[in-house]
C-alpha cells in the first residue's frame, strides 16, 4: 500500500493488513502523521498531536506482534479522540480555555479500553467548547474546516473528529453526542456516525455536558468500521452509575449481515415531523431528495415503508435547550479555578469568590456562558416547574411517541441534518439558527435510543446524511440497515469518499 492508500482505506482493512503482516503499525501511523503535518494547518482538526508518543506505541504493538503475542483486531490501528475524552498525561481541554494545560491523571474508561485493544492515539481533536454547538466554531482554540469545502463548517460539536476522518488525518475517531454531535458532523462530512443507546458506553472520564444525554460513539468511513469501534468501547462499567449491565452487543456481525442487502420484512417508518409533508420548513430540497432516494433503496431491498407521525418531536428543540443547559449549569460549576486548569487573579489581593468569578469570566466563551445563564434560570425557584419541569414532560411525550411507533415499525428514519454544511461564520451571530441544525437528532437523544447517520449521496456537491433510529439496546438494527444502504450505494459512496479526501488543497500528493 502507498501512503495515500493507507490514509484512504477503511480501518477494518488496515487491521487486516496489519494482522497479515503486510503493513506495520509504524508505517500506518507515520502515513497518518505525515498527512497531518502536511494538511492539518489548513483543516484544523487537531488540538494536540504527539507524533513521538504515537510512533512509540506503534513500535510497541509491532514488537508484540513480532513476539507472536495474541492481539485483537484493532491492534496497531491509529485513532483520534475528541478532546472531551480524558486521557492520562495527554492535554485535555474540552475545547475550553478554562482547561488549558490540564493533563489528566487518569484515562476515561473508553480511552483505557482502546489502549488495551492496542490502538495508537494520534491526537485529540477540536470541538465546540464543552461540546456546545453544531459547527466547532465555539472552540476556544481554532477553526476547523470541512475537507469537502474548506470555507464550510465540519459540523459540531465533534467537528475535529469528523474533519480528521474525512480528510484522511485519522482512519477513525471517537466523538460524543448529547443532542447530535456525532451524527450531524458525520452527516456533513460524508461519514458514518453512531450514537449508542444511552448507558451502553461508559461516560466515566468524558467531561460532562448534560449527563442524562451524553454518549460517546464511533465516527468512521464505513458502517463495519463503526461497528468494530463501537464494540471496542461498549460494555458495563462500574465506574459509571448509569452504565447498563448487559453484554457487549454484537454489532460487526449485524453490519456484515446487513451488507448482504436483504431487508425482507423490515418495517421502516419515515417520520413525518422530520422533513415530511407539512414539515419541510428549514429543510433543503436536495437533502429531502437524497433521503427519499435512500428510502426507495431500502424498499428495493424488501423493506416495508410507511409514514409515522410523532407529534411531540415538534417540541424537541425547546425541551432540549432547557434540559441540556440546566444540566450543564450544574456540571460546569466544578470549573472554579481551584481544582483544574486556569486560575485568574490569584495574587493575594482577592478573596476566593473574586478569583472564581474572574476565572470563569475569562475561562468560558460566550456560548458556554449563555447556557449556564439559561440553565441556572430554568432551574431557579419559581421557574423550575414552568421551564425545566415542562421540558421533562415533553421529554416523556417524545419517549412515548417512540414507544408507540415501535408497535408498528422496526426502525424510524429521517434526514440527519436539515441542510448540508453551511459557510463558516454564517450562523455564529444567530444561536437559534445554530440550534436548528439539531432538529432531527434531538428526539433520539432525549429518548436515549440508538441512532446512526450514514451517507446517502450529495446535494450541491456536499454530503447528506440519512438517520436510522431503533429501540433502546437494538443498536445492531441501526448497523444492519445502515450496512444494507451502504452496500446498495457502494459505488456512489466510494466515489464520494475519494472526492472528499481529494478535494481542493487537501489533495494527497
Ligand atoms: N448542537 C447541540 C448543542 O449545541 C448538540 C451538542 C452535542 O451533541 N454535544 O447542544
Give your account of this protein's structure.
It contains 18 helices and 11 strands. It is an alpha/beta fold and 509 residues long. It is 41% helix and 12% strand. It is globular and about 70 Å long. The chain has an 11-stranded mixed β-sheet with strand order 1-3-2-4-6-5-10-11-9-7-8, with helices on both faces. The structure holds glutamine.
Observed structural traits:
alpha/beta, binds glutamine, 11-stranded mixed sheet, 509 residues, disordered C terminus, 12% strand
Give the helix tally: 18
Which H/E pattern describes the elements? HHHEHEHEHEHEEHHEHEHHHHEHHEEHH
Structural class: alpha/beta
The geometry reads as globular
Taking the sheet with the most strands, its summary is: 11 strands, mixed
Bound molecules: glutamine
Number of strands: 11
Low-confidence parts lasting 5 or more residues at pLDDT below 50?
A: 498-509
The assembly state of the depicted protein chains is single chain
Which percent bin holds the helix content?
A: 40-55%
Fraction of residues in β-strands: 5-15%
What's the average pLDDT?
Answer: 95
Strand order of the largest sheet: 1-3-2-4-6-5-10-11-9-7-8
What is the end-to-end distance? Answer: 15 Å
Query: Could you tell me the radius of gyration in angstroms?
Result: 22 Å
Amino acid at each position: 500500500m502507498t501512503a495515500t492508500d493507507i490514509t484512504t482505506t477503511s480501518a477494518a482493512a488496515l487491521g487486516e493488513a496489519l494482522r497479515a503482516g503486510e503493513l506495520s503499525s509504524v508505517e500506518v501511523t507515520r502515513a497518518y502523521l505525515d498527512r497531518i503535518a502536511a494538511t492539518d494547518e489548513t483543516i484544523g482538526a487537531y488540538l494536540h498531536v504527539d507524533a513521538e508518543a504515537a510512533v512509540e506505541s506503534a513500535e510497541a504493538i509491532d514488537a508484540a506482534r513480532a513476539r507472536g503475542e495474541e492481539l485483537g483486531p484493532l491492534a496497531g490501528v491509529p485513532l483520534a479522540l475528541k478532546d472531551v475524552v480524558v486521557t492520562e498525561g495527554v492535554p485535555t481541554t474540552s475545547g475550553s480555555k478554562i482547561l488549558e494545560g490540564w493533563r489528566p491523571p487518569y484515562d476515561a474508561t473508553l480511552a483505557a479500553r482502546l489502549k488495551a485493544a492496542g490502538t495508537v492515539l494520534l491526537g485529540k481533536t477540536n470541538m465546540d467548547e464543552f461540546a456546545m454547538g453544531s459547527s466547532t466554531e465555539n472552540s476556544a482554540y481554532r477553526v476547523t474546516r470541512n475537507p469537502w469545502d474548506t470555507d464550510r463548517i465540519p459540523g459540531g460539536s465533534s467537528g475535529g473528529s469528523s474533519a480528521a476522518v474525512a480528510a484522511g488525518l485519522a482512519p477513525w475517531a471517537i466523538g460524543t453526542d448529547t443532542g447530535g454531535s456525532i451524527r450531524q458532523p458525520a452527516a456533513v462530512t460524508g461519514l458514518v456516525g453512531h450514537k449508542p443507546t444511552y448507558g451502553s458506553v461508559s461516560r466515566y472520564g468524558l467531561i460532562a455536558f448534560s449527563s442524562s444525554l451524553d454518549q460517546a460513539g464511533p465516527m468512521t468511513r464505513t458502517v463495519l468500521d463503526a461497528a468494530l469501534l463501537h464494540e471496542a468501547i461498549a460494555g458495563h462499567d462500574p465506574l459509571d452509575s448509569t452504565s447498563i449491565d448487559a453484554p457487549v452487543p454484537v454489532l460487526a456481525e449485524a453490519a456484515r449481515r446487513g451488507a448482504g442487502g436483504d431487508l425482507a420484512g423490515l418495517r421502516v417508518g419515515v417520520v413525518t415531523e422530520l422533513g415530511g409533508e407539512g414539515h419541510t420548513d428549514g429543510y433543503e430540497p436536495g437533502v429531502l431528495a437524497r433521503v427519499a432516494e435512500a428510502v426507495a433503496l431500502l424498499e428495493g431491498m424488501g423493506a416495508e415503508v410507511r409514514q409515522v407521525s410523532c407529534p411531540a418531536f415538534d417540541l424537541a428543540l425547546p425541551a432540549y435547550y432547557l434540559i441540556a443547559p440546566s444540566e450543564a449549569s450544574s456540571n460546569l460549576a466544578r470549573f472554579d479555578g481551584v481544582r483544574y486548569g486556569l486560575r485568574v487573579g490569584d495574587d493575594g489581593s482577592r478573596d476566593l469568590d473574586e478569583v472564581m468569578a474572574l476565572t470563569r469570566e475569562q475561562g468560558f466563551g460566550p456560548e458556554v456562558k449563555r447556557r449556564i445563564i439559561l440553565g441556572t434560570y430554568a432551574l431557579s425557584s419559581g421557574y423550575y416547574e414552568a421551564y425545566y419541569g415542562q421540558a421533562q414532560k415533553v421529554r416523556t411525550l417524545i419517549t412515548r411517541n417512540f414507544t408507540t411507533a415501535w408497535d408498528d415499525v422496526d426502525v424510524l428514519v429521517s434526514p440527519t441534518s436539515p441542510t448540508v454544511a453551511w459557510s463558516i461564520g454564517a450562523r455564529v451571530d444567530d444561536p437559534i439558527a445554530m440550534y436548528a441544525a439539531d432538529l432531527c437528532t434531538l428526539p433520539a437523544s432525549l429518548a436515549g435510543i440508538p441512532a446512526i447517520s450514514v451517507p446517502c449521496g450529495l446535494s450541491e456537491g456536499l454530503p447528506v446524511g440519512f438517520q436510522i433510529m431503533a429501540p433502546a439496546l437494538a443498536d445492531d438494527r441501526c448497523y444492519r440497515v445502515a450496512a444494507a444502504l451502504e452496500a446498495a450505494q457502494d459505488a456512489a459512496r466510494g466515489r464520494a469518499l475519494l472526492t472528499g479526501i481529494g478535494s481542493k488543497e487537501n489533495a494527497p500528493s
